[in-house]
Amino acid sequence: MKRRMMTMAALGALGLLTACATGPASAPQSSAPAAPAASSGVRVTGSISYLQRVALPPDSDVIVQLRDVSRVDAKADILAEQRFTARSQVPLPFELTVDPGKIDPRMRYAVAARIERGGKLMFINDKLYPVLTQGHGSRVDLILHMVARP
């Protein structure tokens, strides 16, 4: 009798843990179907800004890259890149799309950005902005630092 009560208590606790991990039974698992998301690729979104109170020239080029930063002593592989001319002031939104087959959960990925004008670097990130794996999400807001005055 005592053993049966312990078994039932253990099963009840397991059921409670399962319910906590999966959420309510009526809650949807995802807001979008899995098949279209996989076929369109993995999306990384976010914004780019800087803290200096200077206007960004309208002919500034913005370059955002998703990089594989897993190897410490090697150049990071670029998995996705977006280039555009700044048509407004910061924050500047971006979206990178990469083939899901290129993402390995064991590896580390980060987003890097820079703003140039006429090929001259004006702003760049000096911090690592990890995404996608090892508990990091797919949205990141980058803060760039000024290298040269616009």
What series of H and E elements makes up the topology? HHEEEEEEEE
From the helix content, strand content and strand pairing, which structural class follows? alpha+beta
Strand content: 35-45%
Major sheet summary line: 8 strands, mixed
Weakly predicted, low-confidence segments: 1-38
| Shape summary | globular
The value of Rg in angstroms is 22 Å
Mean pLDDT: 80
Helix content: 10-25%
Amino-to-carboxy terminus distance: 79 Å
Total number of beta strands:
8
User: Helical segment tally?
Assistant: 2
Can you put this structure into words, describing what you see?
With 150 residues, the chain is of the alpha+beta class. Helix content is 19%, strand content 39%. Strands 1, 2, 3, 4, 5, 6, 7 and 8 form an 8-stranded mixed beta sheet that branches. β5 and β6 (120-124) form a beta hairpin. It is globular. The termini are far apart. Residues 1-38 have low confidence and may be disordered.
Features:
single chain; eight-stranded mixed sheet; alpha+beta; disordered N terminus
Summarize the structure.
By secondary structure, the protein is of the alpha+beta class. The chain has two helices and eight strands.
Record the SSE blueprint.
Blueprint: H1 2-22, H2 34-40, E1 42-50, E2 61-68, E3 77-85, E4 92-98, E5 109-117, E6 120-124, E7 129-131, E8 139-146
Parallel strand pairs: 1-8
Antiparallel strand pairs: 1-4, 2-3, 2-5, 5-6, 5-7, 6-8
